[in-house]
Give the backbone structure.
Amino acid sequence: MTLSFARENRIASWHFIIAFVALAIGLLFGPLQVWEHTGIKELNFYPYLRAIGIQSYYQGLTLHGVLNALVFTTFFITGFLTFATVRSLQKPLTIPALSWAALIIMVVGLLMAAVPILLNQATVLFTFYPPLKANPFFYIGLTLVVVGSWVTGWSLFATYLAWRKENPGVQTPLIALGSLITMALWQLCTLGVAVEMLTMLIPWSLGLIPGLDPLLARTFFWFTGHPLVYFWLLPAYISWYGMVPKMAGGKLFSEPLARLAFWLFLLISTPLGFHHQYVDPGIPAIWKYIHAGLTFAVFFPSMLTAFNVMASLEIGGRARGGTGLFGWIFRLPWNEPSFAAQTLAMIIFAFGGISGLTNASYNLNLVTHNTMWVPGHFHMTVGTAVALTFMALMYWMLPMLTGKPLRWPKLALAQGWTWFIGMALMANGMHILGLRYELPRRSLIGALPYFNPEWTPFLIESAIGGTILLISSILFFTVMIGTLVSKERLATAVEMPVAEAYEPGPAPKWLDSWRPWLAGALALVVVGYGPMMVQLIAQSQWNVPGPAGRLW
Amino acid sequence: MDRFKAPQGTIAVVLIYLLIIIALWGSAYFTALSRGVTQ
Amino acid sequence: MIHIDRYEKIWIGFSIAMLAGLLIAVTVMAFGYGIQLPVEFGRVDPKTVATPGVSPFGEPGLRELAPGKYDAYVLAQAWRFTPNEIRLKVGDTVTFYFTSTDVQHGVKITGTNINMMILPGQVSRLTHKFENAGEHVVICHEYCGAGHHTMFAKIIVEP
């Protein structure tokens, strides 16, 4: 008996197409930025971009952030979680119309937001801090993208509830559980940005209210902004826990602890946004300190993940004949593009985790905040752990969706390695520039009046890294397009890899039970944000109108 | 001889990782100390 | 309960111990040694704050409190700091107050731990003692429009 997921495949494919078109455009600005940063005049290509309507570095930077970090991630994740959930539950969507509606809402939102950015009417970067005021369609469009992603979540919840009714007492499969938790976390944490959009940015940009409170806006934004990174990361964890061990010829070392990690993310990802506001005025030290503690707590499930995923790979490496303390590493299927790229993404992520822990370390943030260290950090996390894993997923999902074998697997393998090397160089340079030389982030570095020639070696290291990343991107899209236009057909169908548990048997009931975790997450939000949020709202003064004209 | 019994390699790698965390985090810590107090 | 492998238990123990240790280290550095974050200070009205007589930001610059002790009021506006140059002597201790009258800005003073967001309606405050002669750059580190990268000031510490 084979279930048909043809409809789900079509839905997911549209998500992937939009995601990767956005990525292709967004990526192009990355190398332009690192080249400009070197301060070498010949490497500054922005004057030429005016001919195609890109007016400034900052407009390009807005496109880079919005398309890569917001559009690519959201579209890919909603598609991938749909793709993975129905297979994991072995149940097609119960209300496919809901998923189609979600996709349409997201696309409408994307187009609404894209037009003002391209017309240089929303050059406010992907954090859109007010009172820099963008065209209202930018805010309305982004809001619709989020609403659409909620609706995708509702469609998955409906499917899960129907599955639960048909399978009482059966343990939720891990991949489905991780997907549903990711969606639940997303519904909870996006309330912050939804409130910011609906009560502040949209009415204010439409001229319905005269001003707003920038501190309160930042607080709502970062309520969403940090769990957002777990919304990006958890789909990668779903693959690392639920799929990669199978590719390695291993088994998931501890299935219950994998479940626990996902639940812990749902529990503690949200009430810690003040760690992005450590250096904001207007927030008492005690609240910053509480959120520092909670941020340290949310580091713990990632430590669990490091051990559990690696032990799962060790099972694979030893089953393939690896011996000794480290010999198993070399026996892993390094010639398999999807496996290699994801494992390399994990290695980069290990280091991204360290710089993230540094940012989160209360007053250490004084050293790193808004320096080049920060983009160095998130290019290792969202830019590699997440983005490279998503690309690697396409190396088996595209054959599965098209029935065509992956074209040029050697190029795909080279793509993973070039991304790894390019990112290691670029991020290393950026971290040093931020920590030691105090270079600001999101600035036209080559034109700084205080540009210091001491920076040059590290700026060039970053530029070389960025160039290698451009090559890697070209390899990726070559393989994708090559596969799409190929006339070959797969002899045997590809299946979604699903890792078995090393120790079979269901996890305890409390690891498959929504109520306590959801209640705990809500309670922690109330305790961890409630009092300070109430105070900030009570004290807020909506008297900041923003500049009279456009500042860009 | 090396049929999988316990993740010995994993514990070795993650403990090395722990030392790397402390070393790199420590470099930021000492950078902060070297830049003076703020109150 | 769930079965946890012996090595994994060791790892969980080390992880928690390390996180606790790092948190203790920053706590000591913050509340013991005195590297503190900016905290709440009170609101100002961004429309009137730069008017002379209304607030110290009306006449931005240094104010001497005692020999070698100063308050510095600095106004951040797209795309300049006022004043854009501050001259000090080695050993001076300065408490900096920043506010913005238009959009969000940021400030990092190189070679110090002063690093703050500057928001309209809020005052950001931190203190630094300048122990060595030399120059510090006051960098705007939050995107504030087309001229963002040109927004900076200088602190010159004379021997």
Remarks:
- Residues 2 and 22 of chain B are 32 Å apart (CA to CA).
- The radius of gyration of chain B is 18 Å.
